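User: Design a sequence. Structure:
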């Protein structure tokens, strides 16, 4: 199932077998470009499969100050701004397996305000001077950090645990992310990789990581020209999205906001 975070299921144009591992052209660390000029401009959202989407949405809204951008029978989209970093919560049967997802980190303008909100919403925190950590349902860990430059709560970074962080980082770099060791950056957000014996099972928490591009069509063309298997292409009212499988079975979405993008 692949429904983009724009808020409705679009037409799935292609669904060949998914895969990863075809050799790619070298990635330049100087820019977030998917080989022949396809720009990866932002870490748009992380999507989860969850049987606790209402509770997780409440944690992110009441506790972290985000709001529900869209809600359907299939998913809830939460964020501080629809054009910034978001979390998509897809309804799924439980229990879910934690897999490679270690934590989701949200940035807020003022950490003390978040501490008060979380306490008032009934979420105990483990904290030090710089980070608040909430142990959420289904093994989801939400961390909150302060960033005075952010106007609204936003996705800061995601931490994944994988058996070989260097190999995973190389694979993700070949798919358009800028690599700094075992950290992959896009604009001012990032994916951090840590070593651990974690694998994606049959019921993982992580649905996909989504990255904003100027042209999803160009991503599809580039992927097919390199022999990569395109899992889905989803054409929805607000977005056009292309899905590939990355290393460690991590599902990657390249999403284009259409000119009439109307979510807030």
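Assistant: Done.
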């Amino acid at each position: 199932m692949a429904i983009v975070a724009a808020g409705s299921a679009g037409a799935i144009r292609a669904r060949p077998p998914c895969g990863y591992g075809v050799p790619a052209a070298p990635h330049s660390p100087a820019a977030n470009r998917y080989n022949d000029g396809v720009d990866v401009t932002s870490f748009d959202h992380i999507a989860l499969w969850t049987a606790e989407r209402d509770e997780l949405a409440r944690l992110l809204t009441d506790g972290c100050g985000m709001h529900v951008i869209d809600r359907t029978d299939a998913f809830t989209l939460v964020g501080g701004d629809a054009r910034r970093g978001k979390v998509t919560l897809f309804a799924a049967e439980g229990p879910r397996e934690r897999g490679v997802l270690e934590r989701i980190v949200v940035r807020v303008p003022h950490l003390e305000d978040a501490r008060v909100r979380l306490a008032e919403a009934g979420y105990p925190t483990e904290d030090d001077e710089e980070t608040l950590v909430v142990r959420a349902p289904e093994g989801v860990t939400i961390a909150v950090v302060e960033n005075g430059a952010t106007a609204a709560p936003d996705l800061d970074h995601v931490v994944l645990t994988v058996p070989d962080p260097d190999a995973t980082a190389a694979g993700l770099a070949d798919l358009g992310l800028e690599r700094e060791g075992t950290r992959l950056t896009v604009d001012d957000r990032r994916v951090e990789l840590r070593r651990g014996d974690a694998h994606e099972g049959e019921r993982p928490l992580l649905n996909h990581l989504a990255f904003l591009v100027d042209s999803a069509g160009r991503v599809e063309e580039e992927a097919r020209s390199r022999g990569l298997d395109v899992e889905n292409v989803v054409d929805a009212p607000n977005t056009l999205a292309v899905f590939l499988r990355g290393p460690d079975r991590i599902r990657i979405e390249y999403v284009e906001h259409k000119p009439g993008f109307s979510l807030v």
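DSSP finds four helices and 18 strands in the chain. The chain has a mean pLDDT of 87.
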